[in-house]
Amino acid sequence: MDAAARPAALYGRRKGQRREPTPANGLEEYNVPDSSLLPNGVDLRQVTVLPKAEWVRIRDSVDSAAREAAQIHAERKEREDMHFRSKAVVKNWPNTIAGQAQRKLKAKKLREEKEEEERKRLDLEEAQFQAAKRKEAIEQAKTYQYYQNERVKGLHKALLLTEVLKERDAQIEFKKTKPDIYKKKEEEMEREREKAILKEQEKAYERYMNRQALCRDHLEQIKEHKHQAELDKLEAKKEGEEIQRLTKLYKLEVQRENEKKLEEKLEHRRMHCAHVADQDILKAVQEQKQEEENDKIRAHFKAKQNMAKLRREKEAEMNRLMQEHRDITTNRLVEQMKQTFEKIDERVARDVAEREAEWEKELKEKDEKNKAELKSIAEHRASVIKMKEEREREARLEGKEKLLELMEADRIYLEMEKDKKQRHRNENINMQKTQIQQMAEKRAKEQHEKQAELDYEAEKEVIAMCKEQEFQEYANQVIDSESKTAQNIYPLLKAAKEGAGAGHGPVYRERGGIRPSYQARDINGTQLPSYNCNTTEEIKELNTNGNIQQAKGRLGFTW
């Protein structure tokens, strides 16, 4: 038991041998703890001692996976650290792809920022420009609207008239100095005409010399053409001789061809005659064959006629037999029909007798039925009379009840009418109060509107005064500018007078500062035109009895 309980000493020293002391480093070599590190009460002799290789094998088999994982983790961490160090070192290198890309991105970012700033600046300038344009357009619109005013239009018309008068004065001054100017112009034109004549003479001499040179060129060309014509004649003569020689050769060739064709024609005629003879022989043979075939056809046709004759005789025999059979059948049918008619007559007589018996029976039943119906009608008449009397009695009772109901309804209607009249009277009283209140409100509203209209008229008068002041300033500027260059500025002074309307009377402050020539005699004071017209006098002359002869001539009475 003791030996079993004690651990076995594998690969240890044997019992009875003396153990030599081992140095301290021996324990470290075999990973054996020192006796000082052993727990109390543990005998070193009873401890199993393993070799280093076995111990390493056991330890590797136990924690190999953890150690491999730790080693892989350490290697991965080392690679990551090395990668980070490499990135930190390479980050600032300018000659790498990443560095170039980073530099390009940085440059692109700076360029985009610069472009964005430029766009913002352009947008700001565009906004300022558009604002200036809008302001200018508004000013132009205001100016145009101001120029569309009637008084400004009148001032502009006067300005145009002033310009016209100024131009007229200038034309008058120009007309005074016109003769001297025309004299100078005539002298200048005379000098120009003499120069033109000299130039034309020079051009005529130049044209003459050109024509002489052209004539010489034409003579030389004529000589060249004559020489060329002689050469052409010689060439044509040579060509004619050559053509004659070729014509003779052609005729000889044609003659040979004709002789050859004649020989071929004779040969063809001979062959045709032989062919015609052969055709006659073939035709005779074919006629003989045709005759033999016709004989066969005639024999066949004759046999066919004989067969048709036999067929007709057989059909006639068959028809005769059929007719005999038909006659026998007809006689037999006649006998049968005769017997059938006799049976039908007997059956009809029996049916007639039965029908008469039934009719007598039905007539008897009908009489009995009529008697029963008359009895029921009498009973029904009595019951109807009784019911009618009861309905009349009930109707009288209902009439009394309806009369009472009508009387009650009349009473209720009278009470309702009375209430309705009272309610209508109350409504009229309320309506009268409402109308009085509305009249008061309307009067107050009219007073308010009148006061608002007065205020509006006052404001309008102030605005008219401001516009008048503005117009006078503008008119004074125009008059000052025109007085420096023009002498007659009366139209401008007339158009710049105070008050609208271009009239000749006083200014009406109550009517918005207008200056009319005439006013209608009504509450509106509408301005009338200030121009004169001769239409009234013309109509008066037409309607007055003047010279009768003129009237006759005007109407066409000229006898």
Key features of this structure:
single chain, 559 residues, mainly alpha, two-stranded antiparallel ribbon, 2 strands, 1% strand, disordered N terminus, Coiled-coil domain containing 173, coiled coil, TPH_dom
Write a structural description.
The protein has 559 residues and is an all-alpha fold. Among the domains are: 2-115, no CATH class; 497-559, no CATH class. It has helices at residues 2-5, 24-29, 52-90, 97-147, 150-176, 178-483, 490-495, 535-543, 548-555, and strands at 518-519, 527-528. A two-stranded antiparallel sheet has the order 1-2. Mean pLDDT is 77; it is low at 1-17 and 20-36.
Class per helix and strand makeup: mainly alpha
| Spatial order of the strands forming the largest sheet | 1-2
Beta-strand share of residues? under 5%
In total, how many beta strands? 2
Shape: extended
The number of distinct helices, counting runs of at least 4 residues, comes to: 9
Radius of gyration: 78 Å
Topology as H/E string?
HHHHHHHEEHH
Helix content: over 70%
> Whole-Å distance between the termini?
191 Å
Average predicted confidence as pLDDT: 77
Low-confidence stretches: 1-17, 20-36
Q: Note the main sheet.
A: 2 strands, antiparallel
Question: Topology of this protein?
Answer:
Blueprint: H1 2-5, H2 24-29, H3 52-90, H4 97-147, H5 150-176, H6 178-483, H7 490-495, E1 518-519, E2 527-528, H8 535-543, H9 548-555
Helix pairs in contact: 5-6
In short:
It holds the Pfam family TPH. With 559 residues, this protein is mainly alpha-helical.
